[in-house]
Amino acid sequence: MDFLEQFASGYIGFAVWTLVWALGGILLIRGAFRLQKQEYLLIGVGAGIIIESWIANLLGRFMDPLLAFWISACVVLIAGILFCIPLFRRKIKLLDLFPVVIWQWIVLFFLFYVFFMVSRGMSIWDEFKTLPLVSMIASGDIPPHFPYNTSIVLDEHYLRYLIAAQFMLVGEFYPWTALALLKALGLSLSTVLVVVWVKKITKNSLAGAIGGVFHVLAGGTRWLLLLLPPGVIDRFDAVINRIGSGLNSGADLRTALVSPWAAQGMAPIPIPFAYTNGLIKPSILGVGWDNVTFLILMLVMFLYNKARSIKSIVLVGILLAAMGLMDETTFAFLTGILILIHLFQLIRKSSVDKHLSRNMLIMLLVVCVVVVLQGGFFTAIANNLFNPNYVSYHDFNVTFNFPPRFVNPHLGELILTNPTHLLVLLLECGPLLLAFPLVLVWGWKALKNRKYVEAAYIGTSILGLLFIFIQIISKGINSAVNRVQNDFLEVSLLFAVPVVFYWMQNRKYGTKVALAVLGLLTIFGGVVVMGTELSGIQEPQLSIFVTEMDVRMMDRYWNELEEDATILDANIPRALTLFARTGNSSIDFYETDENWKVLVFDPDPVKMAKAGYDYLYYDQAYWKSLTSIEQERLSADCVVMINEETEWTGDFRILADISACQ
User: Fold this and answer.
1) Best label site of 272, 546, 600, 629, fewest CB within 10 Å?
2) Whole-number Å distance between alpha carbons of 437 and 448
3) Structure confidence at residue 4 (pLDDT)
4) Per residue in 137-160, pLDDT tens?
5) 224: burial class by Cβ within 10 Å (0-12, 13-18, 19+)?
């Protein structure tokens, strides 16, 4: 194992590991599908990381995580070689096996550089949750538990955290760097795939480029509220109940619209609240977060209708199973519609390709079984049904809503029967809403032309809209349903460019100009957001709760403490991230345990040890907040200082062993 850790990790190890799964993914796609030459490499790289991570999710339960990640990459490569044996027998030329399209890779590397540098300068995506999860998965917690209390299984989508954890462990990156790599890779690769996909559909290079721009920058148009008179905005404010960061961005709606968005960890130039969105935000905002979901979706869009052989069908099945670890509703809706389509094909007497339909149906049913067993949300549902002793993180409460409404995580509930709410909702959606009817027509035509995955994905938007009648609350938060309700906008965003491209053919010049203006309105908010985020390149961040002292502590003690060690830290996510050990501090990500509060605010190492804590991690601010008696308790002989890190300001970090204080 020492040999493995020495030569299989670090920058060189990461480069080799990446090459293994990327090469394996390319060979898998090359040997299983017949695609256009310019599609093989990009799709292969995307499929490589997703399939490797799906395998790692299975192997990581039974072996050391570093070994599991390397074996997973090697399995992808070996399978790819086996898939390509028929090509090798035909003595295919190397350039034909790996057809390189230069512009794709120039654009990919340029976008990756920009997105990675921007991502390093921002920390806006719930780092109190993401960093502890990445750190603990990298230490071997697969499937992950709730890091604040590891007696609870975290029954949600965790594929993105698993991929970042692999980057962290294999590359010896910090978790925030691993997440930046993941976001940059996901957004840059999916953007180039969109360009290729739109160009393929429209047979027009300019349309492909516009599709890529839309993927990165298109979003809603909340900023159009700035054009309204102040008195009108004040009347809007009287009937809109802002929530979350929308409430914290200003005392009233008018103030919020001209103020920075109240989100932590933004770049030096903050994002204006008017240019964010609660329904369809531009992907560039925070360099995206659902990039992995969209990457899997694009891979399925390219490959599903091309799957003919058993090996190609198996690969599509693995990609769908991976989607089940990333986006539960998209997976459930997409596979459900596809199952119905293939069932209908089998029932129809005049249907062609019944053999293929039967194989696809079998694959989809097997995937549904696998998804229930592989971990995540669907596994939790099964455990809650059949295992009364199972303790899961989420507790969903579902109720019926009427009148129908959209839940906006910034502006609260927008009720369709309220004229003011409806107007604000229309501005939140922006011109993408106008493309939705055309997209539905496209979906119907796709179904008739046997482009089933396109039809099925467009169909998910209709199912998502049904949730305007449904309220879902988890841990007291009602914005979970938002991701389902806004599916119609996500679908419209993907199909807008090809749909409008064909619709505008033979239209009058004035109509084409109007469409161009609507397109510019759609991306304007994204342009502003990206402009502010570029300032982050000049000031890279570690994290909102990590300093250089913490980094030095992490360098020495990450995953080095006892596997069952418990650490008490007043800054809860900090110790979990630095040491990859639980703090048993909270009921959920937002509410701390009452017993933990007592131990933190009235510290006594004896009580801490009796409560099951082995270590204490604290800083100067915490030490100064204590009374002299409390400081004396923490200076008792049983409290053994393991390490101290300091800086010139006098601030410090101390890791102390309190296990002997019984």
Assistant:
1) 629
2) 17
3) 55
4) 999 998 888 888 887 777 778 899
5) middle
pTM of structure: 0.93
Q: Is the previous residue joined to 603 through a cis bond, with omega within 30 degrees of 0? A: no
pLDDT at 381: 80
- C-alpha 577, offset from chain centre: 19
Residue 564 exposed, middle or buried by CB count within 10 Å (0-12, 13-18, 19+): exposed
pLDDT at residue number 391: 66
Pairing assessment for the beta strands 640-646 and 397-400 based on DSSP bridges: unpaired
C-beta separation of 249 from 260 below 8 A: yes
Residue whose C-alpha is closest to residue 14's, from 131, 188, 185: 185
| Residue indicated by tokens 């990333």 | 326
Most confident of 277-291, 300-314, 530-544: 300-314
Ordered strands of the 567-568 beta sheet: 567-568, 615-619, 652-657, 640-646
Helix (H, G, I), strand (E, B) or coil at 524: helix
User: Sign of torsion, CA 166 171 176 178?
Assistant: negative
Angle ∠(477,478,482) on CA atoms, nearest 5: 125
If phi over 0 gives left and psi between -120 and 50 gives alpha, with beta otherwise, what is residue 376?
left
Structure confidence at residue 477 (pLDDT): 60
CB < 8 Å & 24+ apart, contacts of 243-247? 243/409, 243/410, 243/411, 243/412, 243/479, 244/409, 244/410, 244/479, 245/409, 245/410, 246/273, 246/278, 246/408, 246/409, 246/410, 246/411, 246/412
| Average of per-residue pLDDT values in the chain | 89
DSSP secondary structure, 101-122, as one string? -HHHHHHHHHHHHHHHHHHHT-
Number of other CB atoms surrounding residue 438 within 10 Å: 16
pLDDT confidence bin for 352, thresholds 50/70/90:
low
Residue 476 backbone zone (phi > 0: left; psi -120 to 50: alpha; other: beta): left
Q: Report H helices in 282-399.
A: 291-303, 310-324, 328-347, 354-373, 377-386
Give the residue extent of every domain in the chain: 548-657
Res 215: pLDDT: 93
DSSP string over 71-94:
HHHHHHHHHHHHHTHHHHHTT--H
Q: How far is CA 342 from CA 204, 252, 304, 452, in A?
A: 32, 52, 13, 9
CA–CA distance, 235 with 420 (Å, rounded to integer): 9
Query: Any idea of the CA torsion for 605, 609, 615, 619, to the nearest 10 degrees?
Result: -30
Tokens at residue 498, please?
Answer: 């090809």
Residue 592 bridge partners (DSSP): 586
DSSP line for 481-503: GHHHHTHHHHHHHHHHHHHHHHH
Whole-number Å distance between alpha carbons of 412 and 410: 6
SS3 392: strand
Who contacts 222 (Cβ-Cβ below 8 Å, separation ≥6)?
257, 274, 275, 276, 277, 278, 427, 428, 525
* Type and span of the H or E element at 619: strand 615-619
For residues 639 and 352, the model is more confident at: 639
Is residue 96 scored above 60 in pLDDT? yes
The pLDDT of residue 476 is above 60: no
Instruction: Write out pLDDT tens, residues 211-233.
Output: 999 999 999 999 999 999 999 99
